[in-house]
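re the bet — no i am not wrong, look at it urself. input seq straight from the record:
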Amino acid sequence: MSLSCGTRTRIVSLWAGQLALACALGLGWVAAGAAPKAPADTKAAKSATEDADWLYTIQRRDTLYDLALAWLEAPRTWQDLQRLNRVADPLRLPPGGKLRMPVAWLKREAAVADVMFVKGAVTLRRGAEPAQPLALGAQLRSSDVLRTGEQASVSVRFADGSRLLVPPGSEVQLESLLVLGRAALPAVVLRVQQGGAENQVVPNPQRPPKYEVRTPKLNLGVRGTEFRVQVDGDRQWVAVDAGRVRATGEAADLVPGEGLVAGAGGPGRPRSHGRRAGP
């Protein structure tokens, strides 16, 4: 499967123009403070992240009792953490060590995302409501669907300051927006149905975010990176500019300069795409 240099140039040029305009307006990819939490129901926000583990870095004076109260949702208790991690003494934990906490065990609240930049015709579809024009400053919730017209784009900020840019001709669903546990660990799941999505995920070694992007053929998980996803009918690709991206079914992470193309036969082998280019 070959990579098209012509397509690569066109996509990068288009997205670079949208990013430049966003930066000129002061709404670029600058990490910002946390967005407020929404009182919405969290049932629709359950996601595939629930079968994953989160690694907590032990701090001084931590005990399993305190961590269970801060992070775990009933009926899970400190004994569950003790069994899972084979901890001998729940009152004596080594600072700097790691504890596994299944995401499905964590307390959760629904979160919102803020619309930071809108250019052109962008619509929001929420539930069974008809699509409405999207306004700057709007707050987005789980299951909301964004659609951009020709020459249109939108920039969205999540609870931890991570950013999403939706370029022209795209449809992206915010499938799940959550914050987990006392420290508000962000958990975001996006679904790209059409067009593209450019992501900048804020790295946090102490509280790595759970950030997933899905297309009809690719499931991508990241911890702090910059990467682009494009869906063009049956052909879909991801290109990594910084950090690492894990694609379902791939033995190794995609690293900066690598991309992956999925066609009718499923994902192909990772390929080099260069620092500024997509397949």
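see?? The chain has three helices and 20 strands. told u. also The CA atoms of residues 45 and 176 lie 4 Å apart. so pay up
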